[in-house]
TrEMBL record:
Catalyzed chemical reaction(s): a quinone + NADH + 5 H(+)(in) = a quinol + NAD(+) + 4 H(+)(out)
Name of the protein described by the UniProt record: NADH-quinone oxidoreductase subunit N
Enzyme Commission designation: 7.1.1.-
Subcellular location: Cell membrane; Endomembrane system; Membrane
HAMAP family named in the record: NDH1_NuoN_1 (MF_00445)
Length: 487
């Protein structure tokens, strides 16, 4: 093994690790007064990491030259695609955070540092070529996330969210670890290529149970059914910038890891896990759609919307084809933009005293008092529902097209029918915004950075976003080609 080559391939992780440790020292000496400076430097470190991974995506990097530390780490085009989304969404959540936490006098220097260390873990997850790398990255992300969920220490809802996330996360990690031990026991290796080779001549029953347990553990990280129950409570209770973070970066990392495990380690046994993914996809679509109907809190509604969209993204994985995997990445990118736009708009919902408004009923008639904000929320809702000409339609189109091409017509038909149910609760929010009598509750001023992020994210999910579909699809195809080349 060439150590210099391996160290070069992990340059983004090295950059973030050094930045995190240096900023931790700054926080120790400067205290919470330095939180603004630390946030700015953290964003700069994440942008630098994005710049370091971009060449691998642009060049379609794949093959042995992208493998580090005896194949335990892959710095290929697939990991680069995922890392750009992870680092970009993490940087955006850091920009959104200061004005929110200052409202509660809770802006602490540790917040951006926790986000940086979580980003390092997520980067390891999408680059994993071994079960050990997978677990280290997963736990590094999870430990930081548990603290972030409970970051508002004087808020009972935040403390409850952190505790629920920790308990259920520990359960999911145990299940995942048990599945990994079964896989190792029946294949004799933790390396993805060697696991794939060991299963080439058949799938022992023990290894099948290993796949099932690993899928259950990973389902928690993407908030898919059956381990979705934490999502509404954590989304509602966690600070809104943290919720924005949970809805974007960890989702990308979870899906990236799931694709690595299933298409690399278990790619030769797709018949064994395909039906499980089909069930999880359909169950997530239905549970997310039905669960959102009765919600009165917009953050809880977005949580069920997240579960619903996870199901749609998994339709692409259920096809087991490159077209389906490419569709997943396209949809995932669009979903990140929709989530950023949605939660940024929610952060701008404040009353005259600066208190955050989360009840949907209090948004009545917002189109007449804050027309720009109402328009942004309506665009997010229509895009999440997959209604053209907004870009959310394109995300659904590419995954359903892949399902049809893979002769999975029943899956596509059920998914399309279930999306009609989901449209109901999105349209309910639009109806409150535009047709109910004004409640005159949302009258507070918004932070200028929130306005800038909302404008750009809404432009991306608007019809103008279709101008980028060719470029996005080409890069997603480069990423999936690199992923499948790792077999």
């Amino acid at each position: 093994m060439d150590w210099s080559q391996s160290l070069r391939l992990i340059a983004p992780e090295e950059t973030l690790s050094i930045a995190g440790l240096v900023l931790l020292l700054v926080a120790a000496w400067g205290g919470d007064k330095a939180s603004r400076l630390i946030s700015i430097l953290s964003v700069a470190a994440l942008v630098a990491a994005m710049a370091l991974v971009a060449p691998a995506l642009c060049g379609g990097a794949m093959g042995p030259d992208t493998s580090a530390f005896f194949g335990q780490f892959h710095a290929d085009a697939f990991s680069s695609f995922a890392k750009i989304l992870i680092y970009g969404s993490a940087a955006i959540t850091l920009v959104l955070a200061p004005s929110y936490f200052e409202r509660f006098n809770s802006m602490r220097a540790e917040y951006p540092i926790l986000v940086i260390f979580a980003s390092i873990g997520m980067g390891m997850m999408v680059s994993a070529g071994d079960l050990l790398t997978l677990y280290i990255g997963l736990e590094m992300m999870s430990l930081a996330s548990y603290v972030l969920a409970a970051f508002l220490r004087n808020d009972g809802r935040s403390a409850e969210a952190g505790l629920k996330y920790f308990v259920l996360g520990a359960l999911a990690s145990g299940i995942l670890l048990f599945g990994m031990s079964l896989t190792y026991g029946f294949t004799g290796s933790t390396s993805f290529p060697l696991i794939n080779a060991a299963l080439a001549n058949g799938l022992p029953t023990g290894a099948l149970f290993g796949i099932v347990f690993m899928l259950i553990g990973l389902a928690f990280k993407i908030s898919a059914v059956p381990l979705h129950m934490w999502t509404p409570d954590v989304y509602e209770g966690a600070p809104t910038p943290v919720t924005t973070f949970f809805a974007t970066a960890p989702k990308v990392a979870g899906f990236g890891l799931l694709m690595r495990v299933l298409l690399d380690a278990f790619g030769g046994q797709s018949a064994a896990w395909q039906q499980i993914i089909v069930f999880i996809a359909l169950a997530s679509i239905v549970v997310g759609a039905l669960g959102a109907i009765g919600q009165t809190n917009i953050k809880r509604l977005m949580a069920y919307s997240s579960i619903n969209n996870v199901g749609f993204i998994l339709v692409g994985l259920a096809t087991t084809t490159q077209a389906g995997a490419t569709g997943m990445l396209v949809y995932l990118t669009i979903y990140v933009a929709m989530s950023v736009a949605g939660f940024t708009a929610i952060l701008m919902l404040k009353d005259a005293d600066g208190n955050y408004v989360e009840e949907i009923a209090k948004l009545a008639g917002l189109s007449r008092t804050r027309p720009g904000l109402a328009l942004a929320l309506a665009m997010v809702m229509f895009s999440l529902a997959g209604i053209p000409p907004l870009l959310g339609f394109w995300g659904k189109f590419v995954v359903f097209q892949a399902a049809v091409q893979a002769d999975m017509l029943a899956l596509a038909a059920i998914g399309i029918a279930a999306s009609v149910i989901g449209a109901f609760y999105y349209l309910k929010v639009v109806k409150v915004l535009y047709f109910d009598e004004p409640a005159d509750v949302v009258t507070g001023e918004s932070d200028v950075w929130h306005k800038i992020i909302l404008v750009f994210s809404c432009l991306f999910i608007s019809p103008f976003g279709y101008l980028l579909t060719g470029w996005l699809g080409a890069n997603a195809e480069k990423a999936t080609t690199a992923l499948l080349a790792a077999l």
